[in-house]
Design goal:
The chain is α+β, with helices and mostly antiparallel strands. Helices cover 41% and strands 23% of the residues. The protein starts with a strand and ends with a helix.
Amino acid sequence: MANRVLGIEIGQNLTRVVEIDYKTKNPKVHSMFSFPTPPEMIEDGVVHADSMFRSMLYSKIKEKKINTNKAVFVLNSTRIASREMELPLVKEKQIKDLLQMNASDYFPVDLSQYKLVHEVIEKIDKPEEKKMRLSVIAIPNEIISSYEELAEDCRLQIVALDYSGNAVKQLMLREIPGDIKATIKIDETISTITVMDGDIIKLQRNVNYGLADAIEEIQDSELFGEYLSFTDAVDVARRKTCLELKSDVIQPEIENAERDDMGHEIDSERFKKLRANVNYTLANLVSSLGRVIDYYQSRNVDRPIDRIFLVGLGADFSGLSKLLTNELNYKVIPLQQFDGISVAKNINLAETKIAEFFNCVGATLKPLPITDEKKAKGNIFTTPIGGMNNVPMEQGAQPPLGPDGQPLPMPDGMEEQKGASLGIPLIILGVCVVASVGLIAYSIFANLVLTSDNMALKGRVSDLSYAQNIYDVYNQTKSDYEWTKLLQDASSNKNDEIVSFIDELEKKLPSEAKLVSMNVTTDGVSLTVSQGSKDIAADVIAQLRTFDSIMVSNVSTITDEVDETGASKVQFTVDCVYVKQSDDSDTSETTDKQADGSNDNTSQDNTSQDNASQNTSDNAAQ
């Protein structure tokens, strides 16, 4: 029988668990269940041991007749950061050291408090280019240790810890067809959008909005009962469409909205108000998802998203997929079943919401090496929870037998020791008691010292907590800047410089010269100029070469004619191209490098811009 593990994801309001085969080619889900997460048990990814959590977990395990205590936990927190890095092509054993040397440029935090986990995305081994691309994740040590303490409290053996983003990736590779794959995972307080091209993640972003506020609106409305629990409110959201859709979409549940599950009448006006309130709570979620998708499409025009699969709690939220389809202008499909992973027959697929357990299943497929491998190997395949295998192996062991099948004789002196007095054991017991008292006294003293140090460190953490707010504001500002920059790039062209060019014409063009015509293109202008003599024509050309807004690229043959009055008329055509004062692409590139901490590269980019400006001035002078 294949080894089984528990895939566990602890959410802000709900905890989800699956029992599944571990490290097999074709895993099978044997059980799945969920229960409410105790209040304040989890805080931004850090979990705390809780007796209520332990009791509910044991009760469900006993109810489902699960006989394994091996667990894979899913880590999910806004404090977990992921970056893509490029390093020289080196051997696997050298990556860790090279990664530590360069990580500070990508993660502006105290890396001694984080564990770095990497995955090789691509290796390029060509004569002209040798490098590798890595996906690097920085996980706070505090989060890792909190799950280890929780597992110890619940008598669970940690097989592995996995990051939510990797869990989504692994299940997308199995379950979602096509070269371009996209999913939106919506849970209580956080949502994740993932876009993959083949087996490479092209974009993965967390959005700090979920369905918790919408579900609280259902609770507060009291339309479906007073003191409605979070779990019951989720069930209501699954069965009734508690949000507004566009007029061109049939509004579900309108006919049945006048009565609740108990047959009591529901105020239709209050129900309409509830739908409006739920839509209001989802506005930030929808707009944030739209910005992320637009950001991807603007940089991958040739690889568009065809459709998006909805997973997590949001996949069963009635009407949400239609709302996202209308607002995002992409077909959003709720994922309701697994195709590449089999499910046990005893699981009622009609009642079980498989999409909610997406992360639990994905984390068991190919988890990241977050935990210590030696520690994990020592923890797996031990006695199940509640098992009775506590008897030492030596207690029932038979004495060794000789070649004739008879027990081997006792060593010399063994018989005499059998009848020995209790004096020696009592002396040993006394020594042990004295040693125990000493160890207890030392432990109490050490505990006092460590308690004092712990309080001092907590005070220090509290004093530095403002740094997290600064970091969050920085990330939001950077995201807003990139979005604004994208809009600017999409709406501008070189012809924006024509205003500066016309201003310079008014100031510098000799009064004797006459502008006959001007042909404007997106890259520059073509001028036909008429004047009384070749000296003036030469002066015009010289003045045009001093313009800051354009650069003279070509001057046609100068023609000299005499009109019927005998006056001389010199005419020529000059082609000019715009010279922009700043390069948006360079600015964008510099901004990205500053955000990643590459100060040296930023200085080089600024120096290049200064040189470019100097060269432009020299050309104009010539």
